[in-house]
């Protein structure tokens, strides 16, 4: 472990560049200076083509209630809500199937008392009669799309507009899409009917909405709730596409990570992903110092590597609370701040604020170590045994230096600056052995 928070795990006899010399890991001591490589990400884009999914809602793939059952209760004169109660289903599902698939008019006047609503029902009636969709009505009267849909269902009214929201499906990870993915990994979640973003700035909301319209030809439905905008891309097709391509990056907040497609992207696309991430889940301390906070250690470690790869000295820290551990990372020193402004930034006005503040900051190095060209020399904080595990011996033709987790490393092969983070399986078979490991990080060499 270095004082900058960079970790590496390797066999005891593996050599790293320490104090200007190649040194075995089991001979490294606290206080020694380890060489980290900056700017190792190049312009090569190795991202695979994105996965496409079947269009439409695909409700039939996960049905628990049959149309025959709905017909049986409909014949008894039950309303959509009464049928839903009988079949342990949602009223919206029954209403959709009864109207769109069975072609039947509603029984009665709804089946559930309308109750109190928090908006002007006369305005709802006017907009509904004008042919507006639930999302459009919700935007006009300032409530959630679900509140509008619930009220409409209470009145046994069919939805206006397309029953299924079809979206464009991007086939490649562009900088624009990477930016939106960063926003979702930073402060997004899955929604019952789509993909949700939690955005605390109106300008960020407007920016995300433009991205969605450009990428998917569908805008966001949003409402202000508990101090932030809850913005949803309402589309079952869009949700399936999103989760097929990026769902593994965020099963939940504590296990979030950098998506594999982003790791394999070029400099511009990686910078865009970081911009979206810092714009939603980051802060700008003292108007000058970007910091990203997360309960996922894996995400923070991945972001640190991306920052280093884009040429920014970046440190990470851990904070313990009564509820859970939190981690944060950010660029450090004049080099780190300047390159963050140039290569990452924010989608909102914090970018301008940081630029103005940066002009008044005196030149300074990183908070730990020293920078010389593309090498950041940082002190070693600790070296400890990491047990026994399976390791692989990989040979790359060329010089005997390479970069692993941004650490300048020595092995039987590898060219200087070759990022093993990007190494992919090939036809040759690496040699395998179970050996004791020494822990100065999580990447194995």
Task: Give the topology.
Blueprint: E1 8-10, E2 15-18, E3 21-24, E4 33-37, H1 67-75, H2 80-87, H3 91-101, H4 121-129, H5 134-141, H6 145-154, H7 175-187, E5 188-191, E6 194-199, H8 202-216, E7 221-225, E8 228-234, H9 236-246, H10 260-263, H11 267-281, E9 282-285, E10 289-294, H12 297-309, E11 314-320, E12 325-331, H13 333-343, H14 350-358, E13 370-372, E14 375-379, E15 384-393, E16 401-404, E17 407-410, E18 431-440
Helix pairs in contact: 1-2, 2-3, 5-6, 7-8, 7-11
Question: How would you summarize this macromolecular structure in one to three sentences?
Answer:
The chain is an alpha+beta fold and 445 residues long. The protein has helices at residues 67-75, 80-87, 91-101, 121-129, 134-141, 145-154, 175-187, 202-216, 236-246, 260-263, 267-281, 297-309, 333-343, 350-358, and strands at residues 8-10, 15-18, 21-24, 33-37, 188-191, 194-199, 221-225, 228-234, 282-285, 289-294, 314-320, 325-331, 370-372, 375-379, 384-393, 401-404, 407-410, 431-440.
Summary keywords:
four-stranded antiparallel beta sheet; elongated; alpha+beta; single chain; 14 helices; Endonuclease I-creI; 445 residues; disordered C terminus
């Amino acid at each position: 472990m270095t004082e900058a928070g960079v970790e590496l795990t390797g066999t005891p006899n593996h050599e790293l560049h320490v104090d200007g010399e190649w040194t075995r890991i089991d001979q490294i001591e606290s206080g020694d200076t380890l060489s980290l490589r900056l700017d190792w990400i190049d312009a090569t884009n190795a991202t695979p083509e994105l996965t496409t999914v079947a269009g439409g809602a695909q409700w039939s793939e996960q049905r628990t209630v049959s149309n025959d059952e709905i017909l049986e209760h409909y014949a008894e004169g039950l309303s959509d809500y009464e049928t839903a109660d009988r079949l342990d289903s949602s009223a919206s599902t029954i209403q959709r199937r009864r109207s769109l698939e069975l072609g039947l008019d509603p029984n009665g006047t709804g089946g559930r008392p309308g109750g109190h609503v928090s908006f002007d029902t006369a305005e709802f009636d006017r907009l509904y009669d004008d042919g507006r969709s639930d999302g459009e009505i919700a935007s006009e009267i300032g409530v959630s799309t679900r509140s509008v849909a619930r009220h409409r269902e209470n009145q046994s009214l069919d939805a206006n507009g397309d029953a299924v929201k079809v979206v464009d499906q991007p086939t490649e990870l562009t900088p624009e899409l990477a930016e939106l993915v960063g926003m979702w990994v930073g402060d997004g979640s899955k929604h019952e009917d789509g993909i949700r973003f939690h955005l605390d700035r109106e300008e960020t909301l407007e920016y995300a909405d433009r991205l969605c319209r450009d990428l998917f030809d569908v805008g966001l439905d949003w409402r202000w709730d508990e101090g932030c905008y809850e913005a949803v891309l309402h589309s079952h097709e869009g949700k399936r596409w999103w989760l097929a391509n990026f769902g593994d990056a965020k099963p939940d907040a504590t296990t979030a990570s950098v998506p594999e497609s982003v790791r394999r992207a070029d400099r511009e696309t990686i910078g865009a992903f970081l911009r979206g991430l810092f714009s939603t889940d980051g802060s700008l301390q003292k108007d000058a110092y970007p910091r990203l906070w997360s309960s996922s250690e894996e995400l923070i470690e991945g972001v640190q590597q991306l920052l280093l790869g884009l040429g920014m000295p970046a440190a990470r820290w851990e904070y313990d609370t009564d509820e859970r551990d939190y981690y944060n990372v950010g660029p450090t020193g004049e080099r780190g701040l300047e390159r963050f402004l140039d290569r990452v930034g924010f989608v909102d006005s914090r970018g301008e604020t940081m630029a103005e503040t940066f002009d008044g900051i005196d030149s300074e190095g990183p908070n730990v170590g020293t920078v010389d060209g593309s090498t950041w020399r940082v002190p070693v904080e600790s070296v400890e045994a990491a047990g026994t595990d399976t390791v692989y011996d990989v040979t790359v033709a060329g010089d005997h230096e390479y970069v692993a987790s941004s650490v300048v490393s020595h092995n039987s092969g590898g060219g200087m600056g070759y990022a093993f983070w990007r190494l992919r399986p090939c036809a040759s078979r690496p040699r395998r052995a179970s050996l004791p490991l020494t822990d100065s990080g999580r990447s194995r060499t």
